[in-house]
Amino acid sequence: HVQLVESGGGSVQAGGSLTLSCQVSGLTIRDNCVAWFRRPAGKAREGVAAMRPPGIGNTYYDTKVRGRFTMSQDNAKATTFLKMDSLKPEDSAMYFCAATSECGYWPLSDVRYNYWGQGTQVTVS
Question: Each residue of 14-23: pLDDT tens digit?
Fold first, then answer.
């Protein structure tokens, strides 16, 4: 049974920071693609950041968050993180963690991801 559980969401003022965590069980994140997606209210889900094995040097960011968000992994803790700095109101969304054994050519597309968390809400005002 594969389970992904996000945490760390909340409400912050513009310019603030949050770090989201996703604890993954049932698969080894070292050997899988993991990603963060978000769904703003009333809008479609979009890719935020993704990491392809072996991880470092294979991280992808959407242009809207590049330079502000940083994705990382702690394999020992089976956890992936999304550190979000300089948050903007347009970053407000439900953030989801996802995983797949095959992230495909473009890992920020959600079509390959078959394991998903329930999401954590981020609100920036």
Answer: 999 999 999 9
